[in-house]
Design goal:
Purple Acid Phosphatase, chain A, domain 2, hydrolase, binds fe (ii) ion, Metallo-depent_PP-like, signal
Length: 411
């Protein structure tokens, strides 16, 4: 979660338990901030019988069913959607803007987007990535919530390319902002893709090979939320060992294995490794117990399915910029954190994973350049007052971690 938000008092509470516990321990203090809505699978009678329910919860709308999630089954995009690049740009590269945790609608988001727009023109960017927390604080209220305009379309006007979007914990808020306690909320972001020229999210997890017919690079977008939500999942479908997460894991394993792309890039909201305050998967926010809050099952998935098979894991969640070093632990996979496109970190390195470069205090974004012979990550910091970007770091890869059958085909 973010600096101005709540951290659960212990791991794996349900939202109902968390809210009740807060009420009992903070008597006389300010009321706990909630989203004003109840996840569809929370038992209403139980919730309203809790110590904190009160009149506000009693007044909530109820019974609006959300369609079952589509998983990896793609849904059609907007008829006038910006097309995916099918050829390298004039520099012989596929150039990709990387942003994360951008959806505030405030000045910093606009400043980062304006700075990125200039760099996108100069670098002939043909694709963009949004690494989750796309709509702060509570995620969209409907498939056509005006927040999609205010916190995505308007800031990013002029960056007229497809945006590969992944879900963040705020996009899946339940009763508590940013809890990740209602994954079904993410279906609204899948539905929005049907009407946006930019927003690409054909399903909750998906892959995009470029070029489609003879891929040089393939992006694998995953939904990390139910494996690392701040609260225990109530809906059996989304529990850590439930059908949704089993299906996603199986899909990713098969998709990575089947990919013929030279470069493979996993994009997800929650990082595997992280030097920022939220920490790494398996011990998020200091929790090392339970199935959810610590992210222990996301850690297992990264280590068993992704490490040594993907070249990069691109993540947000922490509002920092980090280009961590590939190590034996990662099987040669490099973790990149890019979650400072609207919010900023606390300036401190809380952990000491080897880093090629990191900035824990400034806003910024990155540009990924993909060519046959090299993968280049360029990190930019942004001065919000001037809306100008500064190139702060550049890292290059020349050897894919696992190029598969097509190794060297594009060199
Ligand atoms: Fe987040």
């Amino acid at each position: 979660m973010c600096d101005d938000e709540l951290i659960p008092p212990r791991a794996d509470m349900t939202e109902e338990q968390w809210v009740r516990d807060h009420s009992e321990t903070a008597a006389g203090g300010p009321p706990m901030r909630t989203t004003g809505r109840v996840p569809r699978f929370v038992n209403r009678r139980t919730l309203l019988g809790g110590a904190v329910a009160g009149a506000a919860l009693a007044a909530l709308p109820w019974g609006a069913e959300v369609p079952a999630s589509a998983g990896a089954a793609p849904r059609p995009g907007a008829p006038d959607a910006f097309p995916f690049p099918q050829h390298p740009n004039g520099n012989g590269e596929f150039s990709v803007l990387i942003t994360g945790d951008a959806g505030t609608g405030d000045e910093a988001q606009y400043a980062v987007a304006a700075a990125a727009r200039d760099v996108c023109r100069a670098e002939q960017v043909g694709l963009a990535v949004g690494l989750g927390d796309n709509i702060y604080e509570n995620g969209p209220e409907s498939d056509d919530d005006s927040e999609f305009q205010d916190k995505f379309e308007k800031p990013n006007t002029g960056i007229d390319v497809p945006w590969l979007m992944v879900l963040g914990n705020h996009d899946c808020s339940g009763l508590i902002p940013g809890s990740g306690g209602d994954p079904s909320r993410g279906d609204r972001e899948v539905a929005y893709a049907k009407t946006s020229r930019r927003w690409y999210m054909p399903s909750r997890y998906y892959s995009v090979p470029l070029p489609a017919a003879d891929p040089l690079v393939e992006f694998f977008a995953i939904d990390s939320i139910p494996w690392s939500s701040y609260v225990a999942q109530v809906d059996p479908y989304y529990q850590w060992d439930g059908p949704y997460m089993r299906e996603q894991r199986s899909w990713l394993d098969g998709a990575l294995k089947a990919s013929r792309a030279r470069w493979k890039i996993v994009i997800s909201h929650h990082p595997y490794l992280n030097n920022g305050k939220h920490g790494s998967a398996g011990s998020y926010d200091g929790f090392e117990v339970g199935h959810y809050t610590s992210g222990v099952h996301l850690k297992e998935m990264y280590e068993q399915v992704v490490c040594g098979r993907a070249d990069l894991i691109l993540s947000g969640h922490d509002h920092t910029l980090q280009v961590l070093e590939p190590t034996a632990r990662t099987g040669g996979t490099r973790q990149v954190v890019c979650g400072a496109s609207a919010k900023t970190g606390d300036g401190k390195a809380h952990f000491s994973h080897p880093a090629a470069w990191q900035n824990l205090s400034d806003n910024g974004f990155m540009v990924l350049k993909v060519a046959g012979a090299r993968l280049t990550i360029a990190a930019y910091t942004v001065d919000v007052a001037t809306r100008k970007a500064t190139l702060a770091h550049r890292t290059r890869h020349t050897t894919p971690v696992a190029a598969g059958d097509r190794a060297g085909a594009h060199v």
